[in-house]
Amino acid sequence: MNKPVIMWFRQDLRTRDHAALNAAAAAGEVICLYVLDDETPGQWRWGGASRWWLHRSLRELSKDLRLVLRRGRADAVIADVIKESGAKAVYFTRDYAPWSPPLEHRVKEICESAGATCHRFGGYLLHEPESIRNGSGEPYKVYTPFSRACFAADEPRLPSAAAKPVMWQRNVRSENLLDWNLLPKHLDWSKGFESEWLPGEEGARTRLSGFIEHGLSQYAEGRDRPDQSFTSRLSPHLHWGEISPAQCWAAVRGAMARAQGKLDVAGEKYLKEILWREFSYSILHHWPNLPEAPFRQEFAAFPWRNDPDALKKWQQGMTGYPIVDAGMRELWATGTMHNRVRMIAASFLTKDLLVPWTEGAKWFWDTLVDADIASNSASWQWVAGCGADAAPYFRIFNPVLQGEKFDPEGAYVRRWVPELRELPSNVIHRPWEAHHIQSNYPAPMIDHGFARNRALAALKQIKTAIA
DNA sequence: TGAAATGTTGGGGCG
DNA sequence: ACGCCCCAACATTTC
Predict the structure, then answer these.
(1) What is the pTM assigned to this prediction?
(2) For A365-421, what is each residue's pLDDT tens digit?
(3) A21 and A63 part of one domain
(4) Domain region containing A435
(5) A96, A285 Cβ separation under 8 angstroms
(6) Is residue A44 situated within a structural domain?
(7) Can you give the distance from the CA of residue A356 to the C1' of nucleotide B6 in angstroms?
(8) For residue A406, which nucleotide's C1' is closest to its Cα?
(9) CB A17 within 8 A of CB A123
(10) Which of the nucleotides in strand C have any atom less than 7 Å away from a protein CB atom?
(11) Angle A322-334/A308-316 helices, nearest 10 degrees?
């Protein structure tokens, strides 16, 4: 009798350029399994926005593949499904979250004791974190040499075509996606998500080709402008593996070649952003406590302030600084925030309010559709100054100047902060100077000049260790 | 992937 | 015509 193989889907919710799925399809009839595991990741189980996306993405993937849906600890569920189906092998794409190596090890042991083989593949990254190392054989701690090493390494493989696995026909118990309650129940905050996103492999491919057609040529300067739309917006698709970084890389390289030099600057800039993702994963892989603890030890003594009221104002977009509030409200309404504004908002929380970066990371984890344990942890630490290749401690964003520089007409602020719509551009980033206009928009919760000096003083306390 | 403070220069107003 | 001052614009240093 034919024995099936199990394709264990994780953050690889696609059919194209999928090494594990290709191999599974070549090995036999396939059971496509997705496990909703809220236990293994502990406090980093999927947040609300991620669950919304996951629901939609699984719905899309199930149009191409017959999915078996199960809840529980992934290793236990895989053991059950092997037992129920008599599967001879398990295939999966490796993952780099701190809890994943032990989980993958347990899955391997389960396979061995059940007499099945276990096959692990890469593909979530361009370069496996073990492969990019400096001259001493150590992982890089600084982005620039890391990126140079990536560019010097072999060009990432070309993406492969869609797999066409033959599905195992026998019945395997599956749960109903709707029963997972991944969509918001009572307070429906996800209305604004619908018009913003098209989760799934097809949506990802549409986004990539749209970016190459409309965004890439202006990417170098335009990527910093939240009032315009030159960013790729591929991050949630990459996070869920609806598209692979190799597909993005190859598509941009192809566009660069066709443009005969005209897209070289913009294209390189974009490829370097892909490499920031790789860098974050390399750091996380080698320093698994990155989500919890400062990369730079001396920050363990930093005088963070426990200030729930300040955190709440920041979360609600009521700080009184228009560019910060616009970003926080965009986040709540759409599940994303423009990259430039993320830096400004994160700097405000950690430097102006001195609230621990972990609080910001937790809020982003719950609210971002692209919430990613590597990028989120590494980027928050970068802004806070305690990360690998951190922003220098004295680099403190001025929310007024950043607003005026990157949202010069105030169009982004007007879109997300309706209280300020009537303000003229010359005061929209400093509404407290527009005395003549009545509005219920709050006064600044803190004076930035004061906050800057306070942050510098706090950083000076631990500076001896930094220098 | 910053900002503020401080230093320098040079043009124009004006006695 | 000259020297002086003011200050914008730019450069450098410091946090």
Answers:
(1) 0.96
(2) 999 999 999 999 999 999 999 999 888 888 999 999 999 999 999 999 999 999 999
(3) yes
(4) 297-466
(5) yes
(6) yes
(7) 33
(8) B1
(9) yes
(10) 15
(11) 70
